[in-house]
Specification:
Elements lengths: L8 H14 L5 H16 L2 H13 L15 E6 L5 E8 L7 E2 L5 E7 L2 E8 L11 E5 L2 E2 L4 E4 L7 E4 L6 E8 L7 E5 L4 E5 L2 H18 L1
Antiparallel strand pairs: 1-2, 2-10, 3-11, 4-8, 4-10, 5-6, 5-7, 5-9, 11-12
Bound molecules: fe (ii) ion.
Fe (ii) ion binds next to strand 9.
Length: 218
């Protein structure tokens, strides 16, 4: 995705600037630092977020609410053409949290509206038992509007995010280049379980392929 609608030129200018700058930083840490420094001004631009949210309500083409995403409360705002970063918006109802999960890239989480909590976990088992994972909760910063928190890829960034507040919250996330793994891990922390979560399109293909296999053996 490279061109946003003209009415959102201001947002396009920001993403263009990030695209230009981020390619000069080769390390993950420097990219996280750059985005963490850039994000607060955008997070506090509520006029711009109101435009984006109004577009969603009106069913405008941008952001495309029909685009298949891992989570149902997720809206893709931008994908850099070189896959150096993507920007996504999340809307959480009061008390709503994602499952505990990891990512295939680094991420910077920012609070736009109300409160966002990012709870981090450390994996403590040796990963030898399929489907089994033992996690320990390590910290849970609660972000106020304009504040950010970063997560690292894979086991270094196991977390859940959500809304500890009594009103709807809005979060903006920037993710880095994903590594080549087709799924993310999803954890049931209290049951010590881990399973693979595939992107919706791939999940549908896998289901159809499984159905075909059983039809052929019947
Ligand atoms: Fe996440």
């Amino acid at each position: 995705m490279s061109r946003l609608p003209e009415s959102l030129n201001e947002l396009q200018t920001i993403f263009d600037r990030w695209s230009e700058s981020i390619q000069h930083y080769k390390d993950m840490e420097k990219r996280i630092f750059y985005i963490g420094k850039e994000m607060p001004a955008l997070l506090l631009n509520h006029r711009l977020f109101k435009k984006i949210l109004t577009n969603i309500v009106k069913g405008q083409r941008y952001p495309d609410a029909r685009q298949a995403t891992m989570f149902t409360n997720e809206f893709i705002l931008f994908i850099n053409t070189k896959r150096l970063f993507s920007v996504r918006l999340y809307i959480y109802e009061p008390g709503q949290y994602t499952p505990v999960h990891d990512h295939n890239s680094w991420g910077v989480y920012g609070c736009v509206h109300n409160r966002i909590e990012v709870i981090r976990y450390r994996r403590e088992d040796d990963e030898t038992r399929p489907g089994y994972a033992r996690l320990r909760e390590i910290e849970g910063p609660v972000l106020q509007p304009g504040q950010t928190a970063s997560v690292l890829p894979l086991n270094d960034g196991i977390h859940k995010a959500g809304n500890p507040a009594g009103k709807t919250s809005v979060m903006l996330c920037v993710y880095g280049t994903p590594i080549r793994r087709l799924y993310v891990n999803q954890y049931e922390h209290l049951q010590n379980r881990v399973s693979r979560l595939y992107p919706p399109r791939l999940r549908k293909k896998m289901l159809a392929s499984q159905a075909l296999d059983t039809m052929e053996t019947n």
